[in-house]
Amino acid sequence: MRVYISADMEGVAGIVHVDQTRRTGRDYERARVWMTREVNAAVRGAFEAGARAVLVNDSHGDMRNFILEELDPRVELISGDLKPLSMVQGVDGGFDAAFFVGYHAGASSHQGILDHTYYGKIVHAVTVGGRPWNETALNALVAGAHGVPVALVTGDETTCAQAREILGTEVTVVPVKAAVTRFAARSVHPEEACRRIQHGAGAALRQLSRLRPFRPDPPYDLEVAFHNAALADAAALLPDTRRVDAVRCAYRTSDPTTLLRVLQCWTILAASAAV
């Protein structure tokens, strides 16, 4: 059994503010430790449940966050940016299950710690087929296109609720904190978070036969509401983009990878217009 892990940071226990998640933040170095430990816990649970190989993809910010010498030596790691599949780079390598560790709620969520979708300064909301989609859904779609079901999602309570709403109740979720507001949470201790994640990872793999890849029927109608019209102006430069209104752009595709690449292109273009 081969397991793929996409690891973000905002959903890690104890993290409540951007100062902890940005390389320039005073608390970033501590947050890196917590992130590394939570992923190690998921790795331990995976190997205990029979995994023979684990690939970890650093999926936060500049994607160079792990303390490498502290990472479980049994894993392989993908790090750095830019990646064609971004947060799920490498998921096309023949895996039996995917874990999304340290994930967060989608943009414009209520009671989601540091909620955003792919680029918080640029994107106000994302829908596919008129339904709100977060990073869990977008990344699960790409994983599903390669036959990989999402078995585990960890993060705050809202993130976990969104995962089950989108992926179904069979997915194992491990909430490690509950939002009070966007920048405040009631969190379990980091050691307790790791204990729960390790247990959840093992439990997820032991019921893997119940899971199916996330494969909603195409086509996929992607729509992004940007924070202002200038950002949408820039995103609309991508060929085949349809401008919906002042702040919204749309794109139709039947290919999950194309959907993810369009979203990446839009945010990169829009970032050039951000002031």
Structure, described:
It is a single chain. This protein is α/β, with parallel strands linked by helices. It has seven helices and twelve strands. It folds into two domains: 2-106 and 135-210, Rossmann fold, CATH 3.40.50.10780; 220-271. A seven-stranded mixed β-sheet has the order 3-2-1-4-7-8-9, sandwiched between helices. The chain has a five-stranded antiparallel β-sheet with strand order 6-5-10-12-11. The chain is globular.
Defining key terms:
275 residues; alpha/beta; Rossmann fold; 2 domains; 5-stranded antiparallel sheet; 32% helix
CATH superfamily of the largest domain: Dipeptide transport protein
Distance between the termini: 47 Å
At CATH level 3, the topology of the largest domain is: Rossmann fold
Q: Tell how many strands the DSSP assignment holds.
A: 12
Largest sheet: 7 strands, mixed
Q: What string gives the helices and strands in order?
A: EHHEEEEEHEHEEHEHEEH
Portion in helices? 25-40%
Percent strand: 15-25%
Contiguous runs where pLDDT drops below 50 for at least 5 residues: none
Radius of gyration: 17 Å
| Continuous helix count | 7
Q: So what's the overall shape? A: globular
**Which CATH architecture of the largest domain would you pick?**
3-Layer(aba) Sandwich
Structural class: alpha/beta
CATH class of the largest domain, named: Alpha Beta
Spatially, the strands of the biggest sheet line up as 3-2-1-4-7-8-9
In brief, what are we looking at here?
The protein is α/β, with parallel strands linked by helices and 275 residues long. It has helices at 18-21, 28-48, 135-145, 157-167, 190-206, 229-235, 256-271, and strands spanning 2-7, 53-58, 76-78, 97-103, 123-128, 131-132, 150-156, 172-181, 184-187, 220-226, 242-243, 248-253.
